[in-house]
Each structure stands twice: as structure tokens, then as C-alpha cells.
Amino acid sequence: MNVTDIQKMIHNASAPCKDIEAEWVQKYLGTKRKFIGLKSPDRNKVLNLVAHDLKKREAAEVKAILDQLFASDIFDDYNFAGKLLTRLPQVRKSLKMSRIKSWLQNSNGWAECDSICQSLFDFKEVLERWTEFENIINECRISKNIQLRRASLVLQVKPNRNCADPKLRHLAFETIEKLKSEKDILITKAVSWLLREMSRLSSHEVKEYLERNKDSLPAIAYRETMKKIETGKK
User: Fold this and answer.
1) 64 lies in a domain?
2) What's the CA gap between 84 and 36, in Å, rounded?
3) Distance, CA of 220 to CA of 189 (rounded, Å)
């Protein structure tokens, strides 16, 4: 199975959609790539087949395939590559974070960024590669590229959801402090998301942070996180 085979499977599983529908979806996702209508259940069927095959391959071969999918001008290919990466822990283990950064640099909109970042590294992987992880977060959060600044927040969502390690919380608070003054929804919503996930295991600490920084945090982040702490709902 090569990248051409994978793209054929993706495109064959996609449901044709009218131009006006595709344009609306593109606008919603914030993508400049063409949308061809691959729905999640159909994508997951293809993912199962492709992941099963690629688990048998050498990591270098899989990385080359991912490079090509992330370079595609089709949104569904890019999104598929991000979801595929979450299913290949052995590939991730040998994957330099600088390569992830290069894929993110070419993303546009929240959906492409999150397809890579949202479920990528769990807390065990992060803590095992702490120096490298911390460095990439610090690089991304000061980037002129807003996609990388969003990534610096979203990459920390999953680790902080399931682990209350002080190192994770400290890095998360540092990142939020760096970005909390930004007004773009790509950042304000990501700040809210990270704080809400942190509050699952560290609600008292997060609430104290909210109270100290109410006037400087994005209003949506303060409101959604406080509601999460007080009601358990977004």
C-alpha cells in the first residue's frame, strides 16, 4: 500500500457534495484545501485498513507517506494523515517533533491544526520526551504563524486531561500567559479548551488562576472554564 493507494481509498469513500456545500464546510473548518466530503464513519473504516497495513512497515516509509498526505491540496487527505498518526505509536516514538512542526506550518484553520495536535501525545509520551516537547511548545508559542501558536496550546490538551504532573501544568500556564492577550478565535478557543481540560484534575488551581487573571484572560475562556468547574459541563 502506497500513498496513491491510500488517496484512492479516501476519495472512493468520500460522498460527493455540491460546490456550495463544500464551500460552506471549507469556511467552517478554516481550510483553503479542497473538501471532498469524507465523513467520519467512512474515514474510520479506511483508517482501520491503512493503520493495520502500515504497522508492519518501517517507520521511515510511513513518515514518507505522511509527508505526502500532509502536502496534499485535499483537506480530507490532510485530516486523514493526522488521524492516522494517532494510531501509529511506534512511528510517533521515532518521530522528531520538528517534523510535526513542519506539517503544522502548512496547516490552515482550526481543523487541520487539531487533526494533528488534539490526540497526538498522551502524558506518558510527553514526560518521556519532556525536553523535546517543552522546546517545541516554547518555539511554537512565539511563532509568527498563528497555526503554530494554536498548536502550542492544543498539543497540551490531551496530556493535561489525564495527568496532573506539575511540569505539565506549569508549561500550560506559561503558554496561556504568553497567548492570553490575543483576540483571534483560533487562540481564545484553544486557551479555553486547555484550561477546561486542566480543570478535570486540578480544578482548585485552575479556579485560583481564573480569579487572579479574570481581566486579562479571553472572556470566553474565563466563562467556559468557570462553568466547567462549577457544573461539570462546558
Assistant:
1) yes
2) 18
3) 7
Do the domain assignments include residue 234?
no
Within 10 angstroms of residue 64's Cβ, the number of other Cβ atoms is: 13
Residues in the chain with pLDDT values less than 50 = none
Q: C-alpha grid cell for residue 193?
A: 479548551
Q: How far apart are CA 188 and CA 72, in angstroms?
A: 28
Backbone φ and ψ of 74, nearest 5°: -105, 125
Angstrom distance (rounded) from CA 78 to CA 85: 11
From the CB of residue 211, how many other CB atoms can be counted at a distance below 10 Å?
10
How many distinct structural domains can be found in the chain?
Answer: 1
Amino acid at 213: N
Cβ-contact 70, 81 below 8 angstroms: yes
Q: Which long-range contacts (CB under 8 A, 24 or more apart) does 204-211 make?
A: 205/169, 209/173
Looking at residue 20, what is its pLDDT?
Answer: 65
Distance in angstroms (rounded) separating the CA atoms of residues 124 and 33: 33
- Determine, yes or no, domain membership for 174: no
Within its chain, how far is the Cα of 165 from the centroid? 21
Alpha-carbon separation of residue 64 from 1, 52, 57, 68, 69 (angstroms): 13, 17, 11, 6, 9
Residue 85 in grid coordinates: 498518526
In DSSP terms, which residues pair with 74 in a beta bridge? 34
Structural domain includes residue 204: no
Residue 78 belongs to domain spanning: 1-95
Closest of 35, 40, 46 to residue 12, by C-alpha: 46
